[in-house]
Amino acid sequence: MMASKDNRIVPVPLPDSKGPLQDFICLVANAADAFTAALLIYDPAEKVLRSAACQSLSDHIVPDAVFRVESTLLGDLFLRGRPSQETYFQGDSTQLGIYSESEPIRAYMAAPVGNRGLLWADTRKTYRFTARHLKMLLELARNAANLLELSKAAVESKQRASKINLVAEMLPEWGGLTDPAGHGLGRAVTKLSEEGAFDGVLCALRTDENNLFRITASAGFSRWVRKGRLVRGEAGWIPWCVENRLPKFVSGLERGEESPVLFHKGERVGFEVRSLAVVPWEGFEGAGVLSAASRSPRPWEEIERTSLVTIARLAGLVRSVSVQHRVLQGIRKHDGESGLVSEGYFRELSREAFSRAEASATGLLLLLVSVEEMDAIYLQNDCRVVNRFLVSVADMLSGSTGGRGLWGKFRTGGFGLLMENSSLREAASLCARIRSAMGSCVVTAAGRQIRFAARIASACYPEECEDLHGLWKVALSRLALPRSPKT
User: Fold this and answer.
1) Relative orientation angle of helices 302-332 and 183-195, to the nearest 10 degrees
2) pTM (predicted TM-score)
3) Which residue of 28, 121, 281, 377 could cross-link 34, Cys pair, CB 3.0 to 4.6 Å?
4) What is the pLDDT of residues 422-441, one digit of tens each?
């Protein structure tokens, strides 16, 4: 942490930190399939952006990079205060200030982290990020802002009351923010119940139906308030707080002898509630809430209220990042342009298919189709037309095999087919069927006719190679051979 001259606390973690910010930026890089992802934090004292966390595949990344906000591209993106992207990037990547030597960056996107910094991602694989990636980057940027605010709140809380350190104790256990099962919430609820001296603690999410809540974690309550249960919310403090987006701290003394209601009258929580804390949050999948209840009419000290608000926000962040991670994993398995299996996932599936073929002593065919002059097609047409073109080619190829095998993307403008239990003899006839299906190599996409040429090559295990590396090497080398008159 570094304090500026006007006493504002500006967190500036080291780029090689193994803490939550580095875990977070690794998630961003994996989710966006980025070549480089970076979190830059604004230092108002120096009027610069400093690299707080970075994940890159480059050997030429600039450590401890600093960007002046008034004279750099990244500084300008920060000052704009809105998400943006650059497609078909043609500039010198060293001028970005991220790389010491030029890298073939094709596109980048950036999103503001509130007024605290900038979230950056670039790629060498494609000329544009999808709309879904941009939406996810914006949501992740909001989460980064929450992380920075939580960091500031934790420092202030420690300064004000060193005896209250529940947040600091919980954070190390939540290093794996991408845990799909959301176990962090369960641990948080249990820890609050045990160390916070609460008789019952729960987390819940509001469903699409406004009067229903799904309990995601619970400790100390009866079996009627358990994880996974749907509960209606009527005339209780939990639906009130979520609806009004305000925290509430109530006690039996404040409301006479009437017991505070969590969800609805007549609920069976297991004990008479005499004091209640309800703190809502907003996450990727909607509104949620953290609630702590006690049998005694305990007073709510200011520091305890602040701690519960901080913990609730952290619970929302954990849940939100977990959901986004699962969603983005599904997105990454499919190419956003052609709709086929994505490049990385297709390679993974080829390993799995080869393992099966090797174990069962059967054949495996790898067939590659590459559209030539793909760069020209990108440059001469807008994104909508190119997307329709790639989808049409993908449909043409899928139809030529009658649903057999698995089609996927193996590079930009390149389509691959994996066909198990296949032989060298079948490869020749399959190539002929694909050439016939392509016909004159003219596709009408979004009202425009696009003429193209394509190369086709194949390789078959075990007739032509001994391992998976050899299978790909044979197919790719044939794809790179000079075109013959019949190709």
Assistant:
1) 170
2) 0.40
3) 121
4) 888 888 888 888 888 777 78
